[in-house]
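Morning. Coffee machine broken again, so started the prediction first thing and wrote up yesterday's gels while waiting. Chain of 97 residues, entered below exactly as on the submission form.
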Amino acid sequence: MATDAVYKALADATRRQILVELSERSGQTLYELCVRLLMLRKITMTRQAISKHLAILEDAGLIATEWRGRQKLHHLNVEPVIQVMRELSDLEQPIQP
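Came back before lunch.
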């Protein structure tokens, strides 16, 4: 996992909203995500724009995709966030001389 990619992905408010949406309802298609982001979160973006955000999230490992027939489903993967949290908690440890 590239920590920088996780930070970059989490830096954008729209991408964080996509992650929240997937945490509430995993396994959504691009179309479902677009509709739910518009209806529930008032995010108006094109499918292409949401798709670009999904690609960044996928590159960071924050979402996993699976093909079911002709549908590409998107699932939340929290493991990269857990890893970043572990790395941050290591910063609290005093440095031994």
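The first helix runs from residue 3 to 10. Going to sketch it on the whiteboard this afternoon.
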